Structure formats: structure tokens, C-alpha cells
Amino acid sequence: MTSLLWFRRDLRLHDLPPLLDGARDGQEVLACYVLDSRLKASAGPRRLQYLYDSLRELRDGLDGRLLVVQGRPETRIPAIAKQIEATSVHVTEDFSPFGQRRDDAVRDALGDVPLEASGSPYLVSPGRVTKGDGSPYKVFTPFYSAWREHGWRKPARTDAKSATWIDPGDVDGGIDIPAGDAELDHPAGEAAARRGWKDFVEKSLSDYSSERDRPDHDGTSRMSAHLKFGTIHPRTMAADLGSGQGAQAYLRELAFRDFYAGVLYSWPRSAWWNWNKAFDRIDVDEDAEAKKRFEAWKAGKTGFPIVDAGMRQLAETGYMHNRVRMITASFLVKDLHLPWQWGARWFLEQLTDGDMASNQHGWQWAAGCGTDAAPYFRVFNPTTQGKKFDPDGAYVQRWVPEFGGEDYPEPIVDHAAERAEALRRYEAVR
Fold this sequence. Notes:
The protein is α/β, with parallel strands linked by helices. It contains 19 helices and six strands. Strands 1, 2, 3, 4, 5 and 6 form a six-stranded parallel β-sheet that branches. The longest helix is centred in the middle third of the chain and has 22 residues, at 245-266.
């Protein structure tokens, strides 16, 4: 008997529940990955590079026994299952709107061969933590309390030796893993994820609560891309978190990740539309001047140093510090009055860790139109934010070396005036 293990957002061999399911009763397992052209088109070069590098490491961990094919999963997975006479196909469950549509199509195409989903990319799967009446939470704080009370399982004990792997050499359609042409500022793959997490726990976790908002310091874990691709599971990380202030602050961030995944699962329309539909009426700028300002924002040439530093860090590395993500997002929606979707799309294209749930709902928080949104009257002042979180100017100096010189542009807007204008527009839809 054979089974098919279809990797997606779980590019690892440790703590992988579907691996246990696929190998049960002594079944031989074929490992495969499907390069879906739809995801390639929306991923951006750095996210694709991370994917390719992680796939190469996964293949090496399996001594070459990873089949990579290209095409639509609803065509490729049934064909592979038929060729190896698989009695089942095993996956980590995907709760995103796209993932659920894709899996429904694959399930239909498989016919009598079951698509068995187990586990998820989260500590607690979307839909598990609900209010007393069964409805999803709309506010993070009560969700967080219920989430902690619900708890989560211990890491699954799996590795490369957990299955007898089928050599994919005789299976039709295999391709070489693309090389990619982007540079990553952090290495990809499971080994890098596990090393990076261990290093963070040993050196930085205790100070995380005080250091995480400082872009001029190296106080964050840089695990977001690893979590995006599942080269490490958050259970593996949570097992190392104790009761210290830094550890609990980090756990809260993992809870936010679960919360936003649950919001997108319950309200799939919110991927690109305002979660709070009242904001569908808000006045946004979309004319030629708006597009010109958008280009200045993307290029890091707004004349606001902390904003420009963040945008240049993003363009050069595929990463931006989380505090600066909030500052740059607030600037786009409240100083430039542009649609949050413009910024969200740019971030998804540029970020190595671009995640639909976290990105879209982080943007809606900044725009005031999502769950737990920033109060409409909270408009980040980029100058005071820069002084507070980059007090010595080290972050700005690193990414905007011409700041203070003749080559640095004047501010493209007057923050005080645009703040007043933003409040006027927000009052109109309250």
C-alpha cells in the first residue's frame, strides 16, 4: 500500500502530523510538491526564492526522494495518485480562501481516493476558538483569553525516518526545482529556521517585550518567513516559551497570527474588501496625483525619514520591521489618503514573509476598517514615531544615508494638514 504526501505550507520533516498519517500501517509514502502557476504569479521573486531554497533542502533531507511537478493541483495530484496506486493523499489543512477552493477541487478530482487533512500552520486552527454561541471572535483580547484556555497539542514527533519513502524517479512529470534569481537576507529552509529560533531564544527572547519595537536594534526573531512557509511549526516554538515577560509577549504575537487567520477564514471577503463595510464609503484618492504619491511611497522618497527607511529596507531585503510596517501603512492611508489595498498588494509582492491573513488584516488595522482596528482618530505622526523608536537615527541612517543632505527630498505632504483631512474623511463614514 502507498500514500501520497503533498507538501504545501509545511516544508519541513519535524512536527508534521500528515507524515504520521501517511505512514500509518506501514504504507510507503511518495513526497511531492506542486508548483502552481497561480501562486507563482502572485508571490514575488523573494518569496519564490525562499520556496525554491526550502524545497531543495527538503529534497536533500529526503535523499532526493521529493517529486516536484508543475501545473494545477486538481490535475497533477490525481494523476500522481493514480500512477502510484495511492490509497490516500495527505496534507496539512489549509484555511485560506484560495487553499480551501483548491483543496475542494482536488478532492472532487480524486474521486474515491480520500484527501486527508490533518494539522494546520497554526497553534490553534481557525474555527476552533469561538464565542459561547459558536460565532467567531471579532476582538483580539477576548480571543486571546479563550485561545490560551483552549491550548494546543505538543509537537508531533516526526523526521525523515518516520516513513519509507518512494523514489520518485519513475513517476511522470517531475521537474528540476528552479534556481531563482533573487537574493535573500536570511537563509531559507528547516535547518535555518531551527537554528534561527534556537539563537533567538538563547540571546534575545528575554528582552523581546522591550526590544521588539526598535527597528534600530536586532531584537526580533525574524521567524515570519519560516512560519509563512512552514519550515518550522509554531508548536515547536511555543514549546520553548516560558512564563517570562519576553516569552509571553512573543506568545501574544503568535496568537495574533492565529487570530487573523481565523478572521480571514470566517470572513473570506476581507482578503481584499473592508471587513467593516461602513468603510466602503470612505473617500480615497485614486487620481494621477495619488498614483504619483504612491510611487514616491514605494521608492522611499516621501521626505519622511522613518517612512523612507522602511520602504527602502523592504525594496532591498524583502523584509520590514513590524513597527515600521505600521508607520508606513498609516502614512499611506492617512497622510496620502490612498486605498489600503494598494499598499497591501505592494507588500505581498515585496515581502518574503507575505501572508494573506496577517498582511491584509494588518493593513486594515492601520486603515481603521478591520477587526480591532486602530481608532480612526489615531494617525501616526511619522516624525514623532521616528524619534521614539529610532532615537539615535541609526535605522534611518542605514537605509537613507542622504538624509540631512541636499539630495534628500522635502516632505511630499504636510502631516498636520493631512491628519485633519483624514479625520474629516473618517468622520464622514462613522
